[in-house]
Design brief:
There is one protein chain. Helix 2 runs parallel beside helix 4 (67-95), helix 4 (67-95) crosses helix 5 (109-124) and helix 4 (67-95) runs antiparallel to helix 6 (137-158). Strands 1-2 form a two-stranded antiparallel sheet. It is mostly helical. The protein has 7 helices and 2 strands. The protein has a single domain (2-173), classed as Helix Hairpins (Orthogonal Bundle), CATH 1.10.287. It has helices spanning 2-5, 8-25, 31-60, 67-95, 109-124, 137-158, 161-173; strands spanning 100-101, 133-134. The longest helix is centred in the first third of the chain and has 30 residues, at 31-60.
Amino acid sequence: MGHLKSTYKYLFVVITGIGIYFLDYFELANPLVNEILLSFISLLKAAYFIYFVFRTIKETAHKEFDFQEFMGFVVVSILLVILSFALDYYCLFKINEQAFAGIIPKQNIITEFISFFYYSISVFTTAGFGDIKPNSTSAQVFVSTELMIAFFFTVLIIANISHIRESFKEKIRE
């Protein structure tokens, strides 16, 4: 549960992305400006996620890190990434409906968001069925960023968690 408390900054970035969606929804800013802002926030979020993961590992390096705590950390982190990128994809789609091929605009916000949540899961797991594809440069950058985070998280973190923690332990001793 400690990980849920430490994610408030990450959730703030997600909420900022939703704010950009509302800027576009109420036509308070140019769609291009909104797309650039959303891209900047998404990249900032990705950088914060990597920082958050390493900071959490560093903070736990000096103590026993039991399996339940580790699994909680993994689940919270993965869900935050998937949910936040689903929101990014949805916001980008609302700014520019041509950003993704394979999405049919629907009247219901929930069914559209579920489509992007599904898409975010398929991107994170690299299952990519091809039914939804990034069609704009911004969409390709978002998808590439989520893929890099997924790769970072699965390969660098899960596969090497004990090595990373030992490295932090040695630095604390020095």
